[in-house]
Amino acid sequence: MEFGLFNIMQKIDRSKSDREVFEEALQQTELAEDLGFASAWFVEHHFFNYSLCPSPLLMIAAAAQRTKRIRLASGILVLPLYEPVRLLQEICMTDALSEGRLDVGIGSGYQDYEFERFRVELEKNMVMTTEMMDILERGLTQDEISYDGKYYKLPQTKIALSPYQKPLPRIWVAGMMNNDDFKRRVVSHNYMPILASATRPVSALAPVRAAYDTAYREAGVDPANTPMGLMRYFHCTHSKEDAALATKAARDSTRISLSLRLNYAEFDGVLAKPIPYKDEEPIEKMQERLIVGDPETCVKRILEDLDVVRAHHIALFAQPGALDHGKVCKSMELFTKEAIPLLEKELGKPLSEIGPQIGDITPKTGLGAGAE
Questions:
Q1: Which of 94, 139, 242, 270 maximizes the CB count within 10 A of its CB?
Q2: Percentage of residues in the chain with pLDDT exceeding 70?
Q3: Helices (H), 98-239
Q4: How far apart are CA 54 and CA 52, in angstroms?
């Protein structure tokens, strides 16, 4: 079992410059490496202050120059918004620049505003994502490829770049949870799903975990030996005031995300406002669900999450909204100093001995049958 740092790089107000937002994410990634975190994630969003990062691979390339050991993950690449062969080459280049520390997180996307401005129809995202995966799987494992799909066509093309990691980088997949064909692809290709609950109860993810268990069993694989990731809002602190601030930041982040997803966002200039959403619960109720509070409370929440999702990787969303950088760093330090030893005591063994070792998992080769 392992923990990662989830960098979203939000700008809720005008108190920071864009440069400061990116620099804080890089400094937190350096700290995460020093504290023993397994990975750092970098998201992709476009146009809005929900995240200022349009290019996870660019952030990973920057982070690779300032770190040595921590794995660096795209969280996630919105596949329908890319030109396939360009993305293929940039993945290989980033893997080389990071000396094989790249994890490739991919997904189909969900924000209509983004898709419209990339001249892509959101309702086509699933088929486009499937075809993109075909092309990436071939291009990461073969020197020469072609493709003839519904949305993507590629003549016979030589690919000089290849991944630093052999046979290819580890692949995480997000979203597309209601698509059975996609789940079967995840299972057959040895990809790693990652789920998110935002401010909802993690129990809402139980049906998704069960569906993946069924897919693994149908493939003759014991679900107990398969990886699963989980992204969670997080703040570890002995201060009740700071815990409340972190919960408010998580709530405001969720408000903005939902307003963009459901197309009812309102703006102050270029900044989306944190508008209360339908059936929003009291903030005190939200705090009871998040990994927010003192080390004992954080451990309690993690154990509850493990009962439902059986996650082997938990990506900690440490800086939602305008949460202070210094408080975020102290939270990370307290978590590793006090919460992780408590968690290991509760579990009865070191984290490194719990569940499948994600570092040993690689996607299967001979992939990308797809369209011809």
A1: 139
A2: 97
A3: 112-117, 125-139, 180-189, 206-218
A4: 6
